[in-house]
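step=encode ok
step=design start
structure_in=
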């Protein structure tokens, strides 16, 4: 229901704007007097200002009384204007005496406000070769914005806000995320196994003590460690550390074969 109301808002707002333009066009049919035409042009410009105010008023109202809904309403309004404005424009053109085919092929004349060379606002033309693609692009743009998934994603929070919220969350320790699983603890048996394995591959007591002091307490930890960490603990180079790891793996997995 809320989504349907949002679509309806865009439909009504764009309809109000173009019905006003259509009424002014009907007033100008058959008028040839220069002063009267200038008066109609003034009304056209006035209605343009009023139309902008009509479109901006709901946004300003929401900004004051319900800011949380502002982004959602803005998406509905922009999407509705983009989707329904071409339809209203073609409908009003047909009703006021200009066929849709003529509009799409020939475009419009003296219909768009533009700034003239002397700085005054004058009426400009737009050919069908430009107008038709613009109308089509507007409708496609409106359909994209009015997709329920797009509205939901961009009216609640932006990706930047999500990243900011994720960064603000402190990482939890393994004890908090897995309270029933305790980290492995060193015991005399694993330390004895490590000493025996290192002794079998010719590692001296001093190097064994260095590994124990560095926090290595089992054969598994030596195998799983990075060569750089192992080399740093033993005070040797990476290649030697890799050879030690390989020998430890052979003893652990294949009994030294």
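sequence_out=
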């Amino acid at each position: 229901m809320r989504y349907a109301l949002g679509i309806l808002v865009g439909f009504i707002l764009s309809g109000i704007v173009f019905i006003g333009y259509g009424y002014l066009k009907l007033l100008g049919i058959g008028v040839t007097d220069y002063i009267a035409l200038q008066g109609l042009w003034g009304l056209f410009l006035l209605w343009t200002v009023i139309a902008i105010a009509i479109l901006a008023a709901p946004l300003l109202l929401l900004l004051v009384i319900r800011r949380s809904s502002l982004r959602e309403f803005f998406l509905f309004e922009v999407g509705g204007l983009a989707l329904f404005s071409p339809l209203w424009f073609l409908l009003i053109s047909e009703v006021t005496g200009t066929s849709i085919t003529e509009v799409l092929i020939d475009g419009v004349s003296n219909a768009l406000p533009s700034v003239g060379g002397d700085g005054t606002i004058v009426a400009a033309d737009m050919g069908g070769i430009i107008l038709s693609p613009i109308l089509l692009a507007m409708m496609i743009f409106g359909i994209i914005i009015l997709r329920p998934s797009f509205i939901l994603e961009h009216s609640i929070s932006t990706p930047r806000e999500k990243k900011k919220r994720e960064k603000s969350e402190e990482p939890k320790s393994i004890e908090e995320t897995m309270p029933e699983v305790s980290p492995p603890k060193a015991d005399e048996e694993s330390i004895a196994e490590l000493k025996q394995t290192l002794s079998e591959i010719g590692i001296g007591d001093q190097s064994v003590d260095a590994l124990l002091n560095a926090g290595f307490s089992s054969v598994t930890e030596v195998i799983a460690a990075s060569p750089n960490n192992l080399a740093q603990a033993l005070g040797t180079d990476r290649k030697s550390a890799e050879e030690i790891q390989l020998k430890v793996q052979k003893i652990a997995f294949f009994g030294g074969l």
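step=design ok
step=annotate ok -> The longest strand covers residues 108-115.
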